[in-house]
Amino acid sequence: MPEPHDCDAVVVGTGPAGATAADVLTSAGWSVVMLEKGRNHLLALEPPFAGLGHVSNDEIKSQRRFFLGPDPFLEPRTYRRDEDDGDRLFAGEVNNLPSTVGGGGFHADGKLPRFRAVDFKPRSELGPVDGADIVDWPVDYDEMEPYYAEAERLVGVAGDADGNPFAEWRSGPYPMPPGADMFGAVLTTEAAARLGYHPYRAPTGVNSVPYDGRPACNNCGFCAYYGCPIEAKGDPIAPLRNALRTGRCDIRPDSYVERVLLDASGKQARGVRYRDLDGDAHEVSARVVVVAGGAWETPRLLLRSDIGNSSGLIGRYLMYHFQTFVIGHFPFRLHGHRGRSVTHLHDDHMIVDDDIRRFAREHGLPYFRGGLTEHGGGGSPIMEGIYTTPGVAHTREMLDSAMRDRLWAFTVQGEDLPQATNRIDLDPIVRDVYGFPAGRATYDVHPHEVVASRYFAPRLEAVMREAGAESTFAATSPPLEGDRAGRRSASMSRHIMGTCRMGDDPATSVVDRWQRFHDVENMVCTDSSVFPTSTGYGPTLTIVALAIRACRDLAGLPKLTSNRPG
Amino acid sequence: MRFLSEHEHAVVSAAADRLIPPLDAHPGGAALGVADYVDNLLGAFTFDPPLIFAGGPFSGRSGGEASFARFIALSPHEELAWRTRIEGSRGRPEREFNGPTRGWQEIYREGIAALGADFCERDGDEQDDRLAAQAELRTVLYQHACEGAYGPPEYGGNPALAGWHVIGWEGDVQPRGYTDDEVSGRA
For chain A, what are the domain ranges? Predict the structure, then answer.
C-alpha cells in the first residue's frame, strides 16, 4: 500500500510554469500545494481571491527597491564567463526575475508570440553550427498548435491573426483584437514596411476588451517591470485564480524549498522540504513533484538536492536571448510612456535568406538568425536622470529628454545557441539569506550571436532614420568586449532557457518529451529549463503551452487536437 | 528631521543643486526636495510601516482612492535587507552572511563631514571639487537625488509634482490611464 500523501502534486514556483500546472492539475481533480519563496503581492488567498492592490505606477518601489524581488542582498546571484575568470566576476543582480507569487509573469508586459515550425526542428531545418549543440525538439508545431490555442485562451491574448506573414497556421483567431498602437510604433512600423520588412501588432497577454472577468487595459504605460494595478494582464493571475477557485489549490508564499526528497528507491520523489518565514522546516509529501522555479532556480534546487542528474546536464545549455538595442533620438516628443511598452514586432530577422548566408560564410558560420524585433519606447524619469551626467548636462537633458520622451528603441531578442559550457551551478562561497549557495551563471557568447547582431544593427538603424530619427546608436546585452561577453556586466535578459534540456535520450537530455525527469519518474519540470534551443521568440507562451500539454498527460486528460483550416 | 541634522540637510540641498543645477524653468535638486527625500530614506525605520514601499494601487492624482501614502509593511527578510542597506551591517552576523555592508547613514554622515563645515558658503566650482573628492557620497547622492526629484512625492521629494511638471512627465495615471487617441496620436 502506498503511503498517504499530503496532496496529489506539490508545485515549486508560482510563475507562469507553476500557475499553469496548478490550473490544469486542479481542473483534473488533483489537490495541489504551491510553494513560493517570495511574498504575495498578487491576490488574496481566500475567496473571492481579490487583487491585493499592492502594485502601482511607482518608479521608486518597482525599479529602485526590488519590490517584486528578488532583493540581491537576500538572494544574490553570481556571474563569470568561464573558469579563467575565477570563481566569479561579481555577485548581485544577474538576470533577476521576480521572486513573488506570480513570478516572471507578474512583471512582464506580456508579449506572447508563438514559435514557428522551424523553431522546433532547427537541427533538421537549419543544420548544425560548430561549437553549439543544436538539436530538434521532441515536439513539433502541429502537435503544439492546440496547446498554443489553449494557452492564448487561458491567459487572454490580444492579437491580429493575419498580421504576421511569417506566422504558422492557426486553428482560430486570437481571443481578443489588438490594443492601441503606440505613436512611436506607428512611425517605425511604417518606416520598416517602406524598407521591405513586415511589422505586425504584437500578440499580447493584455486585455484589449474586458475578458475573463478582468477589465481592458487603460494604457497607463507602467507595464514592463511594474505589475498591472488593474488586472488587465492575464498571466499569472488567471491560472492562479482558476486553481484557487477549485478549492483544491493551497498557495503558500514565503515558503523556500530547500530540497526535493526521494524515496528509498532513489527513483521516485516523495515530496519536498521547505522553510517558512520563521525559519521552521516543513515537509510536503506528494504523488508528483512539479518543479517550476524557472531556468535559473530549478537547476539550482536540483543541484543542491543532488537528484535527476545522471546525464550531468542539469544546469548546462543555459541560454538567454542575445539582445541588440537600436536606439533612435527624434526631434519631437513621442510620449512612449503611454501604452503597453511594446505594441509591434517583426520577425524578418529570423528568416535566413541568401544575403544572411553570404554574410555568415564570410564570418565562418553556415547561417545565423537574429530574433523577434520589438518596437518600443518609454523610459521613466529616474532612470533617465541616473543615466545622464551630473551637473548642467543633467538638467539640460531632463528638459530636452532625448533619452526618454524623444527616444524609440528596437530590441532584437536574438537566438542564443546552446553551448554545454554555458551553465548554472552553485557558487562555492556566496550564500543566500537562507544559507544556501547562490546560483552562478558561467556564460559566454557564441560567434553566432555576435555576427547576427553586427549584421542586423545597422539595418535597424536605417529603419530608425527612415522613421525620422535624427541620431541612432546600437548596444547589446550582454555588452561585448571584442567578440566575447563583457566582464563588468552579465546579460540583462530575463529570458532564461535551457538547463534541464528535453529529449528522448537519457544520456543527452534531462527530461523526456512529457517533461518528466529521466531519472525520477514522478517529477516534472514545466518551466523554460526544458527548452533545447532558445529560438528568437519570447518564451512565455511556449512555457504555458508546454505546461498544459505535460500536465494534461500527467493527469490522464486526453490530448488536445486541432484542425488546420483549408 | 528624521536622521539628518539641520546642517547636514543644508549640505545635502547644496550638493543636490550641484548635481541637479537649476536651469531655465528647472528649479534644481534643492527645490525639488532631494534633502527631504534623503532624510526620509535614512530615517525610514522611524516610521511604521517603514517608508520603503509606498502603497497602491492609486495615488488619487488621476482618480481613485489615494493609497500611496499608506506604506506596505515589510517582511522580516525585507526589513533585514533595508536595515542593512540604510544602517550598515555593524558586525551583526545575520547582516553579514556575505560580508560587511557599509550603510547609507554612515556614507552620508562621514561624507557630509568631509565636505567641510563651510561647504554651503563656498562657490559652485569649489563645491564641485569637494564633491568630486567624496566619490562614494557623490555616487549615492546622485542616485537618491534623481529618485527624490522625479519620484512619487509620497517618498518626500518632488513637492507639488514640480519635478514631473518641469520635465513633461505625466506621472502615475491609474485608474484614468490614457485614451487610445492619446496613445496613438502625435499629441
Answer: 1-48+90-108+113-156+235-319+498-566
